[in-house]
Amino acid sequence: MNRFRYIGAVLLTALVLVFALQNLNAVPIDLLFWRASASVALIALAPFLVGLVVASAASFLRARKARTGELKAPKDMSELEPGGVTPEPPAGRGD
Predict the structure, then answer these.
(1) Could you report the per-residue pLDDT of 28-78, keeping only the tens digit for each?
(2) Going by C-beta distance under 8 Å and a sequence separation of 6 or more, which residues neighbour residue 35?
(3) CA 80 to CA 43: how far, in whole Å?
(4) 10: closest CA among 39, 68, 41, 52?
(5) Whole-angstrom Cα distance, residue 52 to residue 14?
(6) SS3 of residue 34 by DSSP
(7) What are the b/e assignments for 16-55, b being 16+ CB within 10 Å?
(8) Inter-residue contact 23 to 40 (CB < 8 Å)
């Protein structure tokens, strides 16, 4: 599964870069009282890079928690139920 994520990330990055390189012309940007001009490439790459940094940081923090043992799975189902009591399974037909 890890290989598919890597291939998907490379393909997505390639698509964003091709889009950015084909759209280098400047366009006006209006946001409330702010007006600027920027290339479409910059407008496309900035959110992509911010998302990449945020996702990488979240992945790093999750891996660090798992490595230090802060992220633990419950030992049995009773830890998942409120009050620590596991409900009885439904009664069968008795066949």
Answers:
(1) 888 888 888 888 888 878 888 898 899 888 888 888 877 777 656 656 655
(2) 28, 29
(3) 45
(4) 52
(5) 14
(6) strand
(7) beeebeeeeeeeeeeeeeeeeeeeebeeebeebeeeeeee
(8) yes
CA neighbor of 37 nearest in space, from 21, 23, 25, 50: 25
Tens digit of each residue's pLDDT (9 = 90 or more) over 76-88: 655 555 665 555 6
Please give the Cα distance from 45 to 40 (Å, whole number): 9
**Residue pair 29/35 in contact by the 8 Å Cβ criterion:** yes
State residue 81's pLDDT score: 59
pTM exceeds 0.70, yes or no: no
